[in-house]
Design brief:
It is a single chain. By secondary structure, this protein is α/β, with parallel strands linked by helices. The protein has one domain (about 5-275): TIM Barrel, CATH 3.20.20. The chain has helices spanning about 20-25, 50-60, 80-100, 120-135, 160-170, 180-185, 190-205, 240-250, 275-295; strands at about 5-10, 30-35, 65-70, 105-110, 140-145, 175-180, 210-215, 220, 230, 255-260. Bound molecules: zinc ion (2 copies). One zinc ion binds next to loops.
């Protein structure tokens, strides 16, 4: 058993509940959505009816975990007070909606120190996360995402996320591991040996039990490129073998693997319309092989 749910990020435009039918169209087993336009500050008004319909459609769909990705503009390390306030408000809003729709949690790009260094912004970020969790009560998780290292992004090293989580001290604070970002940041997760070393580092810095969700993306850029460019599953520098070793690794069992990939080009969508069914099927096939080999490797049941 892997218990891995293969899902993807889908659009929620036109009504939050529409995400469920879009997820079903690509046979996703878990889903991630934006609850507001990711490049803007304006919060979308989600009506009680829309939220109720989401919950109903989700319950009827058989789809597992629901995650919200916070807007990209948020930066908990922002120097400008107004930007910091808007950032905090965006995460509070996402957690509040997440609680209402029954989401597992909110995935957050913690922010960027813009060259000032992690230590310079650490205390501010810790304070901001504590405020967010206090202002958005409930049990919805906040998962800080591992980052590729562009533009002084926080979370490029596991130690940074570990330091924040250790200081905030909340059971709601978790980690989202993005396979493309983590590889671009220099962790050799594409081989069994490299993955084992990386996950030991994760365990020492953060704690494996805090890994809550995975962004499953191949990478257009090589190891340690520090560049965040997602590729379709199997077509990038990670390759299918990387996902094979991850699906077989104990740290990743029972996690939702959410695709954020460009999609396979078609006549209708020359640049792809991902995550698409083809990418979902590629990862499901890899997951299913890991599941089969784990079953056949199991020792025979001991009779009492
Ligand atoms: Zn991601
Ligand atoms: Zn990315």
């Amino acid at each position: 058993m892997t218990g891995i749910q293969v899902g993807g990020h889908v659009s929620s435009s036109g009504g939050i509940w529409k995400a469920i039918e879009r997820a079903q169209a690509i046979e996703a087993e878990a889903v991630q959505i934006f609850i507001a336009a990711p490049q803007g500050w304006r919060a979308t008004n989600h009506t009680p009816e829309g939220i109720a319909r989401f919950r109903e459609d989700h319950a009827a769909s058989g789809i597992g975990e629901v995650w919200i990705h916070n807007i990209y503009l948020a930066n908990l390390a922002a120097v400008e007070a107004e930007q910091l306030e808007k950032s905090v408000a965006s995460v509070v809003n996402a957690l509040t909606i997440g609680q209402a729709i029954g989401a597992q949690g909110v995935v957050l790009h913690t922010g960027s120190h813009r060259g000032a260094g992690f230590e310079a912004v650490q205390a501010q970020v810790v304070g901001a996360i504590q405020r967010i969790l206090a202002e958005a009560p409930g049990d919805t998780f906040l998962a800080l995402e591992t980052m590729a290292g562009q533009g002084g992004s926080i979370g490029t090293r596991f130690e940074e996320l570990g330091a924040l989580i250790g200081a905030v001290k909340s059971p709601r604070l978790k980690v989202c591991l993005d396979t493309c970002h983590t590889f671009a940041a220099g962790y050799e997760i594409h081989t069994a040996e490299g993955l084992e070393i990386a996950m030991r580092e994760f365990d020492a810095a953060i704690g494996l039990e805090l890994l809550a969700v995975v962004h499953a993306n191949d990478s257009k850029m090589p190891l340690a490129s520090l560049r965040d460019r997602h590729e379709n599953i199997g077509d990038g520098y990670l390759g299918a073998a990387a996902f094979e070793v991850m699906c077989a690794h104990p740290a990743f069992q029972n996690k939702a693997f959410l695709l954020e990939v460009p999609g396979i080009p078609t006549d209708a969508f020359p640049k792809g319309d991902g995550p698409d069914l083809e990418n979902i099927n590629r990862l499901k096939a890899i997951r299913d092989v890991a599941e089969m080999s784990s079953k056949s490797a199991k020792p025979a049941k001991v009779r009492r």
